[in-house]
Automatic annotation (TrEMBL):
<dbReference type="InterPro" id="IPR013249">
    <property type="entry name" value="RNA_pol_sigma70_r4_t2"/>
</dbReference>
<dbReference type="Pfam" id="PF08281">
    <property type="entry name" value="Sigma70_r4_2"/>
</dbReference>
<dbReference type="InterPro" id="IPR013324">
    <property type="entry name" value="RNA_pol_sigma_r3/r4-like"/>
</dbReference>
<dbReference type="InterPro" id="IPR014284">
    <property type="entry name" value="RNA_pol_sigma-70_dom"/>
</dbReference>
<comment type="similarity">
    <text>Belongs to the sigma-70 factor family. ECF subfamily.</text>
</comment>
<dbReference type="Pfam" id="PF04542">
    <property type="entry name" value="Sigma70_r2"/>
</dbReference>
<feature type="domain" description="RNA polymerase sigma-70 region 2">
    <location>
        <begin position="30"/>
        <end position="98"/>
    </location>
</feature>
<keyword id="KW-0804">Transcription</keyword>
<dbReference type="InterPro" id="IPR007627">
    <property type="entry name" value="RNA_pol_sigma70_r2"/>
</dbReference>
<dbReference type="InterPro" id="IPR036388">
    <property type="entry name" value="WH-like_DNA-bd_sf"/>
</dbReference>
<keyword id="KW-0731">Sigma factor</keyword>
<dbReference type="InterPro" id="IPR039425">
    <property type="entry name" value="RNA_pol_sigma-70-like"/>
</dbReference>
<feature type="domain" description="RNA polymerase sigma factor 70 region 4 type 2">
    <location>
        <begin position="142"/>
        <end position="179"/>
    </location>
</feature>
<dbReference type="InterPro" id="IPR013325">
    <property type="entry name" value="RNA_pol_sigma_r2"/>
</dbReference>
<protein>
    <submittedName>
        <fullName>RNA polymerase sigma24 factor</fullName>
    </submittedName>
</protein>
<keyword id="KW-0238">DNA-binding</keyword>
<keyword id="KW-0805">Transcription regulation</keyword>
Length: 188
């Protein structure tokens, strides 16, 4: 871990403990300190800044309200990454639903969500591939998201998902193969 990352993790842990001890300003300070990290995580999933900001705000509210539910399995940053990833995926699904509803209302043949203005670019393909993997191989999704999108180390992915390190690595490998196949298939 780089010095800056270690320092950031130490600061976040200190703020988390202060919030749990009842410091009235610590939750606000923690949320402010987490915002850049959560925004970076959400932006990996969502192509438009406003959408990523929406997911970021939802994630930060979830972190603040569920702070006591952090069990200590994995790092606090890993736990926040899970919340941010889930929030971004939820926002994507909501945007996709709204885009489909708007397309039906305006132009019935525009049911393909790639044609809506709220979703364009390679991140949409990534989200569609994630949805396909969630439908076909749901046990692979969390490990893939934590490692490749959340940039967590393998050992932390294993700890968060509650599987042995070898299993976590195998799931990530299988997920990458699935994603590669799905994305290549879409390009063809």
């Amino acid at each position: 871990m780089l010095h800056d990352e270690a320092s950031e993790a130490d600061t976040l842990e200190r703020l988390r403990l202060a919030a749990l001890d009842g410091d009235p300003h610590a939750v606000d300070d923690l949320v402010r300190a987490l915002e850049p990290l959560v925004m970076r995580r959400c932006a990996k999933f969502l192509p438009h800044r406003a959408d990523a900001e929406e997911a970021c705000q939802d994630a930060l509210v979830a972190v603040a309200t569920k702070l006591r539910s952090f069990s200590g399995a994995g790092s606090f940053v890993g736990w926040v990454t899970v919340i941010a990833s889930n929030s971004a995926r939820s926002t994507y699904r909501s945007l996709k639903r709204r885009g489909s509803e708007q397309a039906v209302a305006v132009l019935p043949e525009a049911l393909d969500p790639r044609t809506t203005s709220v979703m364009a670019g390679s991140r949409v393909d990534l989200m569609e591939a994630l949805e396909a993997m969630e439908a076909a191989k749901p046990h692979l999704v969390e490990s893939f998201v934590l490692r490749d999108l959340g940039q967590l180390p393998y050992d932390e992915v294993a700890e968060i998902t509650g599987v042995p390190l070898g299993t976590a690595k195998a799931r990530i490998h299988d997920a990458r193969a699935f994603m590669r196949g799905h994305l290549v298939e879409r390009l063809a």
